[in-house]
UniProtKB/TrEMBL annotation:
Its EC number is 6.1.1.3. Keywords: Aminoacyl-tRNA synthetase, ATP-binding, Cytoplasm, Ligase, Metal-binding, Nucleotide-binding, Protein biosynthesis, RNA-binding, tRNA-binding, Zinc. Homodimer. The keyword Repeat does not apply. GO terms for cellular component: cytoplasm. Gene3D superfamilies: 3.10.20.30, 3.30.54.20, Anticodon-binding domain (3.40.50.800), Bira Bifunctional Protein, Domain 2 (3.30.930.10), Threonyl-trna Synthetase, Chain A, domain 2 (3.30.980.10). It comes from Haloferax sulfurifontis ATCC BAA-897. This is Threonine--tRNA ligase. InterPro entries: aa-tRNA-synt_IIb, aa-tRNA-synth_II, aa-tRNA-synth_II/BPL/LPL, Anticodon-bd, Anticodon-bd_dom_sf, Beta-grasp_dom_sf, TGS, TGS-like. The lineage of its organism: Archaea, Methanobacteriati, Methanobacteriota, Stenosarchaea group, Halobacteria. It comes from the Archaea.
Length: 643
């Protein structure tokens, strides 16, 4: 037999016999590793350890020490769920049951499940884990597989669709249970340390609302009970902070069935925050040499055909028929900005040209996928487009990354950064890709930030840098991206005159600092638990007169603090109740005034961290607020010394 070479994570090549599996390769590295092998990651895909390798494959060996181990464990827990379900509800039909970022789900049908049924299933799951059943991979030929699923159209659909080319199909078996599955799995059910079923929701087969409705059961699994407990605590905390709940309690935004799904309405409190965010981004953009532009909400679809979005996006676009001509609400701002660039002739000396716009876009997501501000039909991107010479890429990306990291820093969010490189199918010359990727790497290396490489994950039209936000609970959210584009300048035939007097094509850079306002607002609500920094807080100060006698003094103070968003609590409540209410509304500062304060012309200040000071001069407080606002400090800190 001839040998093949696989590439290990450190870049070294390992030579193995043709037909060798992941496990064989692990044994070739060392017998200890061979024994510990749970699964493999081949060319980025988590696979069973029995998977044969091909020449040139990128290989990572997965043991129970690897990050991927939890995915494997959770997928096995999904099978344990399915087994328990079939024991208790033999009529249930299984469809798919993958692992997710924080657990697993299984979509099932032909069974009536309520939240209360989950406990019994969970008990049964624990019995299966206790029994420590071996999980075995069995290869079955196509005919037999189709027969097994004679009365399960969903599994047959999988056999006829994604498994269409395979003559032999892998099933995983544990006790009386078996499931068509690519794996990988742990060795036996006893490896699963802790399981929990979380909730039930509806889902569509293949995620398409035209298809059958299925019942989706979510669960999670961990190596230990204590890991599970930490997770459940975090989840409880996340529920408390859910932006849909806080959005309603704090009157930030609403989504109303009458006005339409996925179409957020911002109440004054929410709009105040959005305006602060917009002002902040605008200042960063102006300081970085961007020019504001504006485009309308819809364009003729001719534009979308020219940009290529029509081809790829038409199903997600809202189309309108105007005098027998087709228009579309914009799913992107880029073609509008490219058209603006095209209105003038440019010399190499004029570049880079940088445009920005808070541009509202519309994308028709599946209704079932819509959720709060995280998945919506209409959202605003803090969108910037740059038109640069190839030799300017590095400087521009540097500036952009600097701005993005400033944003992360201002909000106390951690960044996770990845560079996505050239995919197999791409437009643009080797030279421009090479030049662009080298410059992106150089910028990232110089910036000193940790970043991962997502090889081949760039768009067909250019490489990109993805930023993810990590919030106060350690959760990750998609954040801004910086995207190079060699395609759109070509489609729009954009040019500038070079030093050589010839026409040249600029490179387009798409970038945002927040991504979308909607997504970013959601992240902020949950990250801060509604306790926005002073500069963002919709109500920054609330004056609490101890009795109605101080109403006149309260109004005078409101006027003196007029640079800020100051309200007066005028309900005839006890002071205790007034404080509790301000606390619930998460107002950064309360100013408490009674007869003594009025007489002395001073105030008492209390913050939402329950720190207090008496006999404060109004000027001192006002000066502090000014600096806290201007410096965008993360916490109200007038009373920080009192701690
Ligand atoms: Zn499976
Ligand atoms: Zn764009």
């Amino acid at each position: 037999m001839s040998d093949i070479a696989v590439i290990l994570p450190d870049g070294t090549e390992l030579s193995v016999e043709e037909g060798a599996t992941v496990r064989d390769a692990a044994f070739a590295i060392g017998p200890g590793l061979g024994k510990d092998t749970v699964a493999g990651v081949v060319d980025g895909e988590l696979v069973d350890k029995e998977t044969p390798l091909h020449d040139g494959a990128d290989l990572v060996i997965v043991t129970d020490q690897s990050d991927e181990y939890l995915d494997v464990l959770r997928h096995s827990a999904a099978h344990v769920f399915a087994q328990a379900l079939q024991r208790l509800h033999p009529e249930a039909k299984l469809t798919i049951g993958p692992w997710t970022d924080d657990g697993f789900y299984y979509d099932v049908t032909s069974v009536d499940l309520e939240q209360e049924d989950l406990e019994a299933i969970e008990d049964e799951m624990r019995d299966i884990i206790e029994a420590d059943l071996d999980i075995e991979r069995v290869l079955v030929d196509r005919e037999e597989a189709l027969e097994k699923y004679a009365d399960n159209p969903y599994k047959r659909d999988i056999l006829e669709d994604e498994a269409a080319g395979d003559d032999e199909l892998s099933f995983y078996q544990q006790g009386e249970f078996e499931d068509l599955c690519k794996g990988p799995h742990v060795e036996s059910t006893g490896e699963i340390g802790a399981v929990k079923l979380l909730n039930i929701s509806a889902a569509y087969w293949r995620g398409d609302e035209e298809n059958d409705t299925l019942t989706r059961v979510y669960g999670t699994a961990f190596e230990s009970e204590s890991d599970l407990e930490d997770f459940l605590d975090m989840r409880e905390e996340a529920k408390e902070r859910d932006h849909r709940k806080l959005g309603q309690e704090l009157n930030l935004f609403a989504i109303d069935e009458t006005t339409g799904p996925g179409l957020p309405l911002y109440q004054p409190n929410g709009k105040r925050i959005l305006d602060e965010l917009a002002d902040y981004a605008k200042q960063l953009n102006l300081d970085a040499g961007y020019d504001p532009v504006e485009t309308p909400h819809l364009f003729r679809t001719e534009l979308w055909k020219k940009s290529g979005h029509y081809e790829n996006y038409v199903d997600d676009m809202f189309l309108l028929d105007v005098n027998d001509e087709e228009y579309g609400l914009k799913p992107m701002n880029c073609p509008g900005h490219a058209t603006i660039f095209d209105q003038q002739s440019w010399s190499y000396r004029d570049l880079p040209v940088r445009y920005f716009e808070d541009g509202k876009v519309y994308r028709k997501e599946q209704r079932g996928e819509l959720s709060g501000l995280s998945r919506v039909w209409s959202f605003t991107i803090d969108d910037g487009h740059l038109f640069v010479r190839p030799d300017q890429i590095e400087d521009e990306i540097n500036l952009i990354i600097d701005n993005i990291l400033t944003v992360f820093d201002t909000f106390g969010l951690d960044a996770e950064v990845a560079l996505a490189t050239r995919p197999e199918k791409s437009v643009g010359s080797d030279e421009i890709w090479e030049q662009a990727e080298t410059q992106l790497r150089a910028v990232l290396d110089d910036s000193g930030i940790d970043y991962g490489i997502e090889a081949g994950d760039g768009a067909f039209y250019g490489p990109k840098i993805d930023f993810a936000f990590k919030d106060a609970l350690g959760r990750k959210w998609d954040g801004p991206t910086v995207q190079l584009d060699f395609n759109m300048p070509d489609r729009f035939d954009l040019t500038y005159t070079g030093e050589d007097n010839e026409d040249h094509q600029p490179v387009m850079i798409h970038r945002a600092l927040y991504g979308s306002y909607e997504r970013f607002f959601m992240v902020l609500i949950e990250h801060f638990n509604g306790k926005f920094p002073f500069w963002l807080a919709p109500e920054q100060v609330r004056i609490l007169p101890i009795s109605d006698d101080q109403m006149g003094y309260a109004k005078k103070l409101q006027y003196e603090l007029g640079d800020f968003r100051v309200d007066i609590e005028d309900r005839s409540w006890t002071l205790g109740r007034k404080i509790r209410e301000a606390q619930t509304d998460r107002v950064p500062y309360m100013v408490i005034v009674g007869g003594d304060e009025e007489e002395a012309g001073t105030i008492s200040v209390r913050d939402r961290k329950e720190r207090e000071a008496k006999d404060v001069s109004v000027e001192a407080f006002r000066d502090h607020l000014r600096s806290e606002y201007d410096e965008k400090r993360p916490e109200p800190d007038f009373l920080a010394d009192e701690e």
